[in-house]
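Lab notebook page, bench 4
Experiment: in silico fold of construct C2
Operator: M.H.
Input chain length: 306 residues
Purpose: comparison with the prior construct
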Amino acid sequence: MPESANQPRGRGGRRGKTTMAYTVKQVAAMSGVSVRTLHFYDETGLLKPAYHGANSYRFYEELQLLKLQQILFYRELGFELKQIKKILSRRDFEKVAALQSHRKVLEKNLARTSSLIETIDKTIQHLKGKRKMKSEEMFVGFSVAAGKDRFNAQTTLGGEPMDCKVSGKDTQDAMCVFEFTGNGGGPRHLHYDQDEWIYVMHGEFEFQMGKAKKPVRVGPGESIFLPRKVAHVWACVSGQPGKIINVYQPAGKMEEFFREIGKFKDLPTLEQMVNKTYTEEQVKSLQQFFDAHGMDLLGPPLGFEM
């Protein structure tokens, strides 16, 4: 007789302890995850079923359902599948602590969403002439606190904060805005599709553009425009971390780039650049990474030679 869901079974499929088991179709129906996706999770090792029946059907028990719940929480919070697999496979992973962490993030998002909904309702009432709306009320819920990212995520450039203040998701990809605090501006590069505008808030920055040999120095209150397809490289030269506002138009893949560059495994370190001990594989891998995000890697950071 073929095995079916919700039948008594013990460890390793032996009869004994009663355990609720669900077929892949049942799990798909209750979770909203497609059968094809559950098969993919199994094949990649992200979520294995509890066991396979005599007919090779996949069966899932509570342990797998809880793991699937974690996967969906992490996906909702913007994590990639490779990251999720790494997190869930850690020996020190603790379900309750993870759920508490998810709750804190969702509470922050809920408060922000509630504020935005209230702003929308007030604006509707204002446009219908039912309630006069103060000008400052139109922007409640859109603010991003000092030192915070638009989505409460930490993005870095060379390990230094690169906080997204306005997302391409806010502007239908028309632009995105970042606040950078630090010294380095990354390697020489160009953008195929983005114009870049930088406004200096604190510190002194030097920029080299195109074929010009003499750098341009930009100080507090000054700005510089970096057109698309023009090579450029820049760095803070104040002797202490500076701060700039960095605007990209259109947004393109810049948010994804900054989100991933901080986790880039083959990024040459400062020590490797100083001692020229980086490898060709590191440079090639970095070039491919830039290309995948709409840029061309052309040379080292300001002050270094590869």
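Observations: Residues 93 and 128 are 52 Å apart (CA to CA). Residues 10-16 have pLDDT under 50 and may be disordered.
Next step: discuss at group meeting.
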